[in-house]
Amino acid sequence: MKIVVLGGGESGFGAAYLAKKKGLNIFLSDKGLIKDEYKSLLDDADIEYEEGNHDEDRILAADWIIKSPGIPKKADIIFKINQKGIRLSSEIEFASEFTDAKIIAITGSNGKTTTTSLIYHLLKNDDLKVGLGGNIGKSFAKQVADENFDYYVLEVSSFQLDDIQNFRPHISLLLNLSQDHLDQYNYNYEEYALAKFRITENQENDNFFIYNKDDEMSMKLLEKLEIKAKKIPFSLKEKLKEGGFVMDDKMVVKIDNEFSMKIEELSLLGNHNIANSLAASIAGKLLKIKNESIRNSLMTFQAVEHRLQQIAEIDGVKFINDSKATNVNATYYALESMKQPTIWIVGGKDKGNDYTEIEDLVKRKVKAIVCLGIDNQKIIDFFQDKKELIYSTSSMEEAVKISKSLAQSGDAVLLSPCCASFDLFDNYEDRGDKFKKEVLK
């Protein structure tokens, strides 16, 4: 069988490595340049590859093509592959065909990384043999090739779900939906939401689907879709007969024997993280993890880097890195959790943002807005009659300096950009790292 992998990053190399290990005929193609670390890994594994070009004749002669999630589905080569009717899969689809391990897959517009890491921590803490992959950690395919795990906890994006055929998690979680990546879904919110729901499309009645009962779009689509998996909800707003909910100052999970713990004991702050903790606890209960072990995991979990991560407190001012907030809804959660007057650093590559969702929070919680991007005009235009103090900057150094000059003891400086990072930075990690560096300087 001829396998072609498109993209030579973590996901692409992992898929190619697994194909090679399974004795398949493998060729990797990247239209851009492949990083040196992956080139040396490809050479070591004796995998044939090309960079800076797509050999279309060779690609279109493949039996199965594995696409890295970063390649847009509107790319010319993808159009040609689809026209020829060649099977086109994501790495998660490809790797799942070669493992019998139970898969716990997590998607949603926000909180994926935190919840995936939390569930992984929960399983690891209970001494289960578990791998972490998907959009986070090491390549899922590479782990399937080299490891012998009983479980995989995978963070899964809509782009990965676009390219599945048989992917069937034992437990799937859809945390929430908000308008994100609409440029890739014809600016149609429902089309994007349906892509997320594909996480459950191959599940059967011996599988589980955990969903957010408070999420409007999820509930709307649940009425239309036929889901075979056993559906288990969580809610911050209502008491449930089965599932996870909040009662008084406790979070409660009703599955088999009841689990509960005080919200103040959770290591993660903010309402959104109570929801994430409920979802993770439901997954833990379904996997028969003992209550005491779940409690211990929820108390000891460390927050994910670049997600509401406190960098330092300088002269009474807290500096918080939320660089992973690349959409308005993620920033909503960040602003909602702020307890002190906030200098807010915002901006980057706009993905069709509508700032009305956070308008009220900005009025109540934000002391000054520091825009950080090549083009800050849209943010300035929206907030100029709502906030007196708005500054425009085009470098992290400048943004941090201005923020520090505006902040007084008892304030917070929050980097929560609402936008993608590609105008000034390599990715959101690079943006967060540069923020940390400037703050610590």
UniProtKB/TrEMBL annotation:
GO terms for cellular component: cytoplasm. Gene3D superfamilies: Mur ligase, C-terminal domain (3.90.190.20), Mur-like, catalytic domain (3.40.1190.10), NAD(P)-binding Rossmann-like Domain (3.40.50.720). Residues 306-418 form the Mur ligase C-terminal domain. Pfam families: Mur_ligase_C, Mur_ligase_M, MurD_N. Its EC number is 6.3.2.9. Keywords: ATP-binding, Cell cycle, Cell division, Cell shape, Cell wall biogenesis/degradation, Cytoplasm, Ligase, Nucleotide-binding, Peptidoglycan synthesis. Pathway: Cell wall biogenesis; peptidoglycan biosynthesis. It is found in: Cytoplasm. One of its GO terms (biological process) is regulation of cell shape. It catalyses: UDP-N-acetyl-alpha-D-muramoyl-L-alanine + D-glutamate + ATP = UDP-N-acetyl-alpha-D-muramoyl-L-alanyl-D-glutamate + ADP + phosphate + H(+). Its main location: cytoplasm. ATP binds at G108, S109, N110, G111, K112, T113, T114. Residues 106-283 form the Mur ligase central domain. GO terms for molecular function: ATP binding; UDP-N-acetylmuramoylalanine-D-glutamate ligase activity. It is an enzyme of class 6 (ligase). Belongs to the MurCDEF family. Cell wall formation. Catalyzes the addition of glutamate to the nucleotide precursor UDP-N-acetylmuramoyl-L-alanine (UMA). This is UDP-N-acetylmuramoylalanine--D-glutamate ligase. It comes from Chryseobacterium manosquense. The lineage of its organism: Bacteria, Pseudomonadati, Bacteroidota, Flavobacteriia, Flavobacteriales.
